[in-house]
Structure formats: C-alpha cells, structure tokens
Amino acid sequence: MEVWLRTWAILWKDILIEVRTKGTFNAMAFFAALILFIFSFAIGPDFDLLRRIAAGLLWVGITFTGLLALARTYHSEELAGGLEALLLYPGEPRAIFLGKLVGNLAVLLLVEVILYPVAAVLFHMDLTGKILPVAGIAFLGTLGFSVIGTFYAALTLHLRAREVMLPLLVLPLLVPVLLGAVSATAALVDPAAAGGVAGWVRLLIAFDVLYFVVCTWTFPVLLER
Amino acid sequence: MAADPALRLQGVGKRFGRTWALRSVDLEVQPGQLVALIGPNGAGKTTLLKAVGGLHRATTGTTEVLGFTLPEDEDMVRVHSTLLPPHGYLYEQLTGLENLRFARLMAGVRPSRRELDAALERVDLVEAGDERVGGYSSGMKKRLAIARLLLRPVELVLMDEPYASLDAGGIDLVDTIIGELRGSGATVLVASHRWERAIREADRLVVMERGRITWTGTPGEWMEKREGPADTRRGRSEARGADEGDTGTGG
C-alpha cells in the first residue's frame, strides 16, 4: 500500500509540474510531428513505399521523441537539488522508479495519440478496424521503451556527457522492443507485409516483462551515493 | 548503566572520486543531546549529516544511528530521523501546501488539510501556502523546509544551516523549534556558520576542518579557547560588536 502511495506521490507531483510548465509535452508533440513531416517530404509521394516503411518511420519518430522525454525524467529533482530530494523519506525506493516509469509512459502515450493519426495521414496507413490492436502494440512497445529509458535516465543522471550517454546506452537495449513493435505494427497496417502479429507480440511481452523485472529489482542500486 | 548512544561513528570516511570529504571521523552522541557542528566551507559538515541520515554511504568505517547500522538499516534510520537540507529540496512549481502534501505522501501517509495548515502556521506561512514556491523568498523557502521537517515526529533531527537566509524572526523560530525538539527528547545535530542561541547553548560543540573533527567540547570552552578567559573576553566581545553572527571558524 505504501509503495503505491509513494508511486502516486511522484506521479501526482510530476503531472502537476508538467501541467504548469508544459515543458515536456508541447516540445515532444511538436518534435514528433516535425520528424514525421520531414520523413514524408524526404521520401516523396511514393505511396506504396511510404506504406511499406510507415511502421518503421513511426517508431523512429517515437524513439527520438521518447529520448527527449527520458532526458527530462528527473528534471524536477535536479531543479530541487538532486535525487536526494526523493531520498529524504523512508520507504520502498522502487516506488521512485515506478512513479517515474508511469509518468514517462503516460506522456509518451499521449504524444502517440497525436502521432498515430498524423502518421496515418502522411504515410497512408490504413488503421480502419485495427485501432485497438495497433494501440495495444503501441502500449507494449512504449512500455518497454519507458522501462529501459527510466532506468538509464537515473543511471546517467550524474554523468557529464549524459545527453550523449543516455541514447548510446538505451538504443542498443531497445533493439528487441523496436523490432517487435515495428514488425507487429507493419504486419497490421500493411497488408503486403509478411509474417503474423502473434510472434512479435510475444517477443514484445517477453522483453517488457524481462526489462521490468530486472530494472525494478536493481533500481535501488542506482540511488546509492 | 549508560543508555546506548543515539549516534556512534567509528573511523567514518567518505570519498567522492579522488576527494575525501570525511576522513576517519569518530563521534558519539548521547540521546537527547544537542550537538553543534561548526567549521568552514568544505569542512565536511553536510557530508557528515548526510552520512548519518542515510543519504550518503560512508566509504570507510562504521555508522550506527539509533541502534541501527548503516547502510544495512538505511530505511529504518530514515523512519526515525529527518534532515533539514541547506537548499530545501523544494519543488518551485508546486505551492507550499503541495510541497508538504508531497512530503507526507512520500512518507506513506495521506495528509489532512488541517495537518498541513498547522505545519504552515507553525512557521508563519499560512497566507503563502497556496502560492508557488518559485515566488517565495529564500527565507520563506527555509521556513517551508522547516515546516516539512516538523510534519514527522522523529528521534533524531539533522539540521544543515538552519539559520541561513532567515531574518531575526526566523532565527528566533529556529531557536525555539530546536528548544522544543530537545524538550521532546529528540537528539539534534545542527551544522551552522552562525553563532546563534541554540549553538551557544548546545551540549557539545564539534569543530570540523577538511573532513576531520579537530576539536570537541562545550561552546563555553570553545569561546575560551578562541578568545581567552572570561574576564579578558568581555572587553573584546564588546569591541567585536557586529561580528557576533560568525562562529569564528573562518566560514
């Protein structure tokens, strides 16, 4: 019970700060849409090609946008004086990870609510009748992304070159998640794509569970100073 | 039989990279004592308080706090102790009330509005409770951090520069609160540059320099050591006048 109260405290605090500053969401939404527009203009009006690579372009957009969010995961604590701001209180330290994870997940999913329709229009993705399965895959992919990203954002918090180190450390670990998310999305939105969805979804779930267990379990080590 | 000490440090050292912030610190504090830590900037006072509060892990030595061993019982130490940090650790985009609510939720308690209002009233911040902390003066931020400290009754209170940024009323408030904490039986460690009432009336003064404890004794003994016997000191302290705020350690 106490874990959930602490998790809620962090989530509530971060949402309030985000609503008041609009620092992360607005920048992310604009950046994400911009990436998709650039891809669209760069590739040109080849609708078949766009449709074939739409899932990949979409997840590249989500990945780059997500990295922006991850870099700001502990921004409010940095302004308040450091992660120690969260260590003043007794209780399960994993609640800090869970609160930050849910916050990142929520912001990214909100951005995706804007991103998917934009991608559907720009890349001629047919989402008719597929919204729920596409949303489910988006959730699983974003969950894996957020788990790894929230963990490594804490790990790199005190590094001098963390803007560089965070993507360098996160992106290789995201390969299975991105592979699963892109392939499953492509199998759903591109009728010409080979292979079924189920296998990729199983891969996504497996890595989500693995990353969640390992990151949640080892997070307290990152707080040792 | 003597009671177990509230705090026992043996050979405690703390290294950040190549720099030793604490070097072989030995310190024992009895329950209910008020101990003042003084020393210049970089003496290791803050690091010592954070090591005792479980925010920093000692590189060497053993630390026992209220019968708990660090770092194994870190969470129990946090349950029974609280720290007033020098910079507040406050969220400027939240209001004063929201900062207090967050602190209570983080401690696993759903706070009532009355409880939060009472804490704000104690530090004379009720009217500013619904304003964002970003608009507070540094003195008001310090008062809010003190209100947060008072939300949780604990056995060990660690205060890092509690007088910094405060006006005369705020300084009196801190002295009163320290007196009340002592009265309730809490052990209080105060690191300060200012020679205020609570420091002058401490049970023990600990002087630190370059990460080491260089002197311990009573505040009276310290003044005598610094300025000579009482009869010659009187004349000098009158002449010193405005310099009263300094602890005389160079900081």
Question: What can you tell me about this protein's structure?
Answer:
The complex is a heterodimer of chains A (225) and B (251). Chain A has 225 residues and is mostly helical. Helices cover 80% and strands 0% of the residues of chain A. Chain A contains 9 helices and no strands. The mean pLDDT of chain A is 89. Chain B is an alpha/beta fold. Chain B is built from 9 helices and 10 strands. In chain B, strands 6-7-8-3-9-10 form a 6-stranded mixed beta sheet, sandwiched between helices. The longest helix of chain B has 16 residues, at 168-183. Mean pLDDT of chain B is 85; it is low at 232-245. Chain A binds chain B through residues 1-2, 5-6, 8-10, 12-13, 16-17, 20-21, 76, 79-82, 84-91, 224-225, and chain B through 50, 54-57, 71, 75-76, 78-79, 82-83, 85, 87-94, 98, 102-103, 105-110, 132.
Identify the most extensive interface between protein chains.
Answer: A-B, 28 and 31 residues
Distance between the termini of chain B: 40 Å
What about the largest sheet of chain A?
none
**Gyration radius from CA atoms of chain B, angstroms:** 18 Å
Overall mean confidence score, pLDDT of chain B? 85
> What is the helix tally of chain B?
9
The string of secondary-structure elements of chain B, in order, is EEEHEEHEHHHEHEHEEHH
Proportion of helical residues of chain A: over 70%
Q: Can you tell me the residue ranges of chain A where pLDDT is under 50 for at least 5 consecutive residues?
A: none
Q: Strand order of the main beta sheet of chain B, please?
A: 6-7-8-3-9-10
- Number of helices, where a helix is a run of at least 4 consecutive DSSP H or I residues of chain A: 9
Task: Give the integer mean of the pLDDT values of chain A.
Answer: 89
C-alpha-based Rg of chain A, rounded: 18 Å
Helix and strand sequence of chain A? HHHHHHHHH
Helical fraction of chain B equals 25-40%
Unreliable spans of chain B: 232-245
Structural class of chain A: mainly alpha
Distance between the termini of chain A: 27 Å
